[in-house]
Design brief:
The chain has two helices and twelve strands, in the order ααββββββββββββ. By secondary structure, it is an alpha+beta fold. The strands form two sheets. It has a seven-stranded mixed sheet with strand order 8-7-10-11-1-2-12, with no helix packed on it. Strands 4-3-5-6-9 form a five-stranded antiparallel sheet, with no helix packed on it. Strand 5 and strand 6 form a beta hairpin. The longest helix is centred in the N-terminal third of the chain and has 36 residues. The two termini are 37 Å apart.
Length: 201
Amino acid sequence: MKINQTAGRCILVCLFVFLLVQIYYVSCYLIPAKPQGPDKELAVLYLVQSVFAAACIGAVFLVQVWEQMRRDAASPFASLLLVNGDGKVKKEVLLEGRRSFAITGKKQGREVFVETSQILEPDRYLYGVCNLVHGRWYLEAAASGRPLGLKRECENVIYRLKKEMPYPLLESDVIYADTYKIVMMKNVTGSGGKSNGSDPL
């Protein structure tokens, strides 16, 4: 699919460059050389058609660039689930429109939180941060001591993350912090972006 897209874009680029050269030649050489008459009118019509075709190709490129930027800014996951040690969903957090979130915990106790603010409250501890970069979420464990784990799909091993090293999050990945786990959800939960029990942060 990507090969076909690349080939199509190369063809459009070549056609766009050809039209620009053609517009330059017709406007600077062909039209001034023609006296008034049918030949000059035909050359002007040819110029107008070339400009219109070049404008259409330019518009296609602009739409493709805008679509790529929109895809890069969009989260591949609809939400995440914060599940406690008893297997109960404590919180569902919508990720639409979000660029980052932090995983924190209480200094006294084992409770874990997911929040947007990376300015910690006095009683909070930072496990790690997650940032959206070019359409992918990257998880990074904090420099301080508490461990953060990651379990890949179809693997029975929980990997302890190295500090301050970004790890890309894939579909069905599970993040572990203390006795809690965070499950990334790809399916959209509702047309309005908010389902029962969900929390937009």
